[in-house]
Amino acid sequence: MLLSGGLDSATVLAIARHQGFIPCTISFRYGQRHQRELDAARRIADAAGVRDQVVLDIDLRAFGGSALTSDLPVPKGRGTDEMSVGIPSTYVPARNTIFLSLALAWAEVLDSTDIFAGMNAIDYSGYPDCRPEYIAAFERMANLATKAGVEGTRPLKIHTPLIAWSKAEIIRRGLSLGVDYGLTHSCYDPDLTTGAACGECDSCQLRLKGFAENGISDPVPYRVRSPRG
Amino acid sequence: MLLSGGLDSATVLAIARHQGFIPCTISFRYGQRHQRELDAARRIADAAGVRDQVVLDIDLRAFGGSALTSDLPVPKGRGTDEMSVGIPSTYVPARNTIFLSLALAWAEVLDSTDIFAGMNAIDYSGYPDCRPEYIAAFERMANLATKAGVEGTRPLKIHTPLIAWSKAEIIRRGLSLGVDYGLTHSCYDPDLTTGAACGECDSCQLRLKGFAENGISDPVPYRVRSPRG
C-alpha cells in the first residue's frame, strides 16, 4: 500500500489490516520540500507492526511543475470551497500514476494482487488522478501490464476505500479502528524547525474541518491555530 | 520519448523526427547491471541534436525480481523460437508502466501530448507490457490521469511505431532514415571492460538475426562472434 504519512493513508492502513490483509508499505522521497511526511510514514507503519517498509527515491524535481516539489508558493487560506475549483498548483504531474506504477512493480515481486491507496475524490476533486474513473482505468491497465494479465491468475485490484468519503467520515472511521492521528503529518508547509503545521494550506484546512465536524481537536501541533480548529 | 540506448529506441527517435516532432528524451538509471545503455542513449540523443535529455534515477533493485536488476543469470543461447514462450527472467516487473508514467509526468510539464516508445510485440511477445492492448489501456488511463483529461484539451497519444515490426523491419526502416546503429547498445551482458556485446543473450540474438536478414553486419563489436552474425 501507498503510505504518505498523512491522515488518509494512515486510515487506509488500518482499514486494510481490519480486512485481514498483512500490509507492506511503500513511501516515496520524491523531492518534497520537507521530510516530515516520511518520518510520519515510518512512525505509522512501525506503530502498526508493518514488517516490509520500502522508501523509494525518485526525484520528480527533474521535471519541475508543482508547488510541492519546487519553489512556487503553497496556496494559503483559500477556504475549502475554493479548493474544489480547477487544478491546484500543488498538483504534481502524474504523481499518483507514478506511485501506483511503482507499487504495482513491488506487488508483482511480492506476488500480491491487492494495492491499497488513499485517493479521495471529495476533498481533492481538482486532482484528475484522484477520480474513480482514473482508478478503474489504472486497474485495467495494470492487469494487462503484469504476469497476472498473461497467466490468467487472480486479477489485481486497486483498493481506494476512502474515495467517496468526506474528511470527517475518514477520521470517524479511523478513530473507530484505533488510528493515532497524532502520528500523522498533512501540512504542505510545516515549520521546518518544530514540524508544526501551518493551519492555512489546503491540506491543513481540510484536516481541521474534518476534526471539527467530529467535535474533537486535531492532536497534531499547529504553528498558527486556525479559528476552524 | 523513452530512450534506452538500444536499437529500437534509436529507430523510434529517427521516426519521430521524420514525422516532424522535436523530441525530448528520457532515460533511466534503474539499477541496470551496467551503464553502457545510458552511454549509448546519450550518444544517440547527441547525434540527433536533442536538446532536452533527462536521465532519471530510480532504483528498481529495491524490489528485486529480475535478471536485469539483480544477480540472477542472464539466459544465454536460447534461440529466438524459445524466447517467445512464457515470461523471461529478464522481465522487470511493471518496468514499462513505470517508465511511461514518468514520461507522462514530464510530457505534462512540457505541455506535450505525444509520447514515443519502442515497445515491440513481435520479439518481446513474452513481456506483458509490450502488447498493443496494454499500450491502449495505458493511453486511456493517461488521459484520465492528467490535466488534459480534465480540461478536455488535445488527448495524449502513446506512439509505438515498432510494435508490429520484426527486428529486420525495424533495422531496415532505421537505415533508410540514416540511423547509425554503431551508437546503440542492446546486450544484456556486455564485457564490462571493453563493452563488447556477448552475442548470446536474447537481445544480442534478436539483433544479430535482424542484421543478418538485411544481409548486412551489425556494426557493434561482439566478444564472441555468434555464427548467426
Task: Quickly describe the structure.
Two copies of one chain form a homodimer. Chain A is mostly helical.
Mean pLDDT figure of chain A: 87
* Quaternary structure: homodimer
Fourth-level CATH superfamily of chain A: HUPs
Give the overall form of chain A: globular
What does this protein structure show overall?
The structure is a homodimer of 229-residue chains. Chain A has 229 residues and is mostly helical. Chain A has one domain (7-187): HUPs (Rossmann fold, 3-Layer(aba) Sandwich), CATH 3.40.50. Helix content of chain A is 37%, strand content 7%. Chain A has eight helices and four strands. In chain A, strands 1-2 form a two-stranded parallel ribbon. In chain A, strands 3-4 form a two-stranded parallel ribbon. In chain A, strand 1 (25-29), helix 2 (36-47) and strand 2 (53-57) form a beta-alpha-beta unit. In chain A, helix 1 packs across helix 7 and helix 7 crosses helix 8. The longest helix of chain A is centred in the middle third of the chain and has 16 residues, at 95-110. The two termini of chain A are 30 Å apart. The interface between A and B is large, with 43 and 43 residues.
